From TrEMBL:
Keyword Signal assigned: yes
Species: Geomonas limicola
Keywords, ordered alphabetically: Signal
Name of the protein described by the UniProt record: Lipoprotein
Family annotation (PROSITE patterns): PROKAR_LIPOPROTEIN
Signal peptide: 1-18
Length: 173
């Protein structure tokens, strides 16, 4: 019986080892990048409700943005937000998006406030750093909150340095 248990354990060990190794899905993605999803967030520690956020961000060469017809307005669902009404424009000449989210009925809060879907052009390979380098610091950022004692406060005054923007990028293949 003891020999049978030893044989079973040895067989199980070899089976496990044989199943390990190359070809797993956790490795680097292969093939060309097709999409990039930019997630915009705000970080901070101010306790009053945030009712509006706007950010200007530059995009690297090699991505395109879905625009609404012949205007420079960002098209939905390319720009979206679960925190409020999202709106924005794109200037191709300087590769800059100006986007914002407003919610007058409840706080936008901290964390992700908007996502922007982009198409990566054939022949380009980008990294998250490609986006971060262009936006350190961001070309523009503003947040608005309603403080019970001070009234409306912004990043131009009371909120300066207390609320900051960030971005993250994921790629689709």
């Amino acid at each position: 019986m003891n020999q049978f248990i030893r044989f079973a354990l040895l067989s199980l060990t070899f089976s496990t080892l044989a199943a390990c190794g190359g070809g797993g899905s956790g490795g680097a993605a292969t093939g060309p990048q097709k999409t990039a999803t930019v997630t915009f967030a705000i970080l901070g520690n101010y306790s009053s409700p945030i009712s509006g956020v706007s950010v200007k961000a530059r995009l690297p060469e090699g991505v395109s943005v879905a625009l609404d017809g012949t205007t420079h307005n960002l098209q939905q669902p390319g720009l979206s937000s679960a925190k409020g009404l999202a709106f924005g424009t794109y200037s191709a000449s300087i590769r800059q998006v100006d986007l914002g989210v407003v919610n007058l009925s409840q706080s936008i809060g901290y964390g992700t406030f908007a996502t922007l879907q982009l198409t990566v052009q054939p022949g380009y390979t980008l990294s998250a750093q490609s986006f971060r380098t262009l936006n350190t610091p961001f070309p523009g950022f503003k947040a608005v909150a309603t403080d019970p004692n001070l009234g409306v406060v912004t990043t131009d005054n009371t909120l300066a340095g207390r609320i900051t923007p960030s971005l993250d990028v994921t790629f689709g293949y």
